[in-house]
Amino acid sequence: MEIDLAYFNYEHGGMTNASARGENPPGGYDFTGLVRTMRERWPHVLVMGEGDYYEYFGGAGMWGAAEAMREAGGRAYVPLPCSLPREWGPFAPCIFFDAQTLIVKRWFDHRAPDFAARNRNLLTVRPVGGEEILHLVTGHGDLHEESYHVADAKALRWLAYKGRLSAVLMDMNEHLSGPKHELTDLEDRAIYDQPAHFLHRMRHTGGLPDRPYRRATSALDYLCGAWNDQKDRREGGIGFVDMAEQAGIYTGTNLPKPSGRQCAQIDHILLSPALADRVVPGSACIHEPVDPDDPDSDHKRLSVTVAVG
User: Fold this and answer.
1) What InterPro entries is this protein classified in (predicted)?
2) How many helices (H) and strands (E) does the chain have?
């Protein structure tokens, strides 16, 4: 069976007033942008990057999103609210899966008494009528600390074991190393004018930021390999393959900032070696906003189709 996977960091999950999180529900939700973006191609699994308070208030956010997509002609999604490490807060991703075509084998709920961090946000499914198990996991790259990026990445290593069909769908707050991914405006003092806004994302040696400035890529170097300029290829890494890079797609996944700051490819669908061989040719895509003048989120949608039997 061909299974469509999608990742979309829908800004604050559609919360209409993200600064009013004390309300019930906090300002309400607007799913117009979610529906407009997703109806281009309804996936079997959608990972939404920011499910702000989605499991609170009777699940108003997650069930509201599922309802809006179904009413728009989409699949009958079942939502699974996720969690963030280090008590980061109730702004974790939410996984939506189509129970008509996928059978859940395991879902490791963070509220269960036997919860273990190694299984955080892990969903395993198989196609209806099929036998192969697909491992799906999500999260969110730490906003402030490179060492947390690496620690969280190392927890994913078992998903790259030989023969395991796995996909990691998440905003990693980090782009791949290599010249096709590097930003070229990091030395522009008109844009990067406040060190507290950007130095935490830069590469450092001995406590000092490297010059010229380059963003840290340690987590993705561990997962996918670091770029070797002399050999013009990736080396090392545990074997994960970036869906977009495999397809030769290098466009950014977040939108340019009003300051003029460039966008970067920080949202990723990473595939284990076994699953990377199952990608349906031509299916990988970073979708541009439906209406560039009125984008539905500050991030773009990613999608890919894989064959699982």
Assistant:
1) Endo/exonu/phosph_ase_sf
2) 7, 16
For the chain, give percent helix, strand, coil, nearest 5.
20, 25, 55
- Distance in angstroms (rounded) separating the CA atoms of residues 268 and 173: 10
N-to-C CA span, the chain: 6
Give the separation between CA 81 and CA 93, rounded to whole angstroms: 7
Pick the CATH number of 2-181+217-307 from 3.40.1130.10, 3.60.10.10, 3.40.50.1000, 3.90.76.10: 3.60.10.10
Which pLDDT value is given to residue 173? Answer: 92
Q: Residue 173's closest CA among 146, 191, 212, 151?
A: 146
Residue 187 has pLDDT above 90, yes or no: no
Q: Contact at 8 Å (CB) between 304 and 283?
A: yes
Angle at the Cα of 298 from the Cα atoms of 295 and 301, rounded to 5 degrees? 80
Answer with the residue of higher pLDDT: 246 or 21: 246
Instruction: Identify which of 41, 50, 76, 9 has the alpha carbon closest to the alpha carbon of residue 284.
Output: 41
State the pTM of this model: 0.93
Look at residue 117 and tell me whether its pLDDT is greater than 80.
yes
Strands 122-127 and 233-235: unpaired
CA distances to 17, 134, 159, 164 from 287, in Å? 26, 24, 27, 28
Whether 221 and 279 have beta carbons less than 8 Å apart is answered as: no
Q: Give the residue among 78, 74, 83 at the shortest CA–CA distance from 51.
A: 83
Contacts of residue 308, Cβ cutoff 8 Å, sequence gap at least 6: 1, 3, 126, 127, 130, 132, 134, 165, 278
> What is the per-residue pLDDT for 96?
98
Looking at residue 18, what is its pLDDT? 63
b or e along 220-257 (b: 16 or more beta carbons within 10 Å of the residue's beta carbon)? bbbbbbbbeeeeeebeeebbbbbbbbebebeebbbeee
pLDDT higher than 80, residue 80: yes
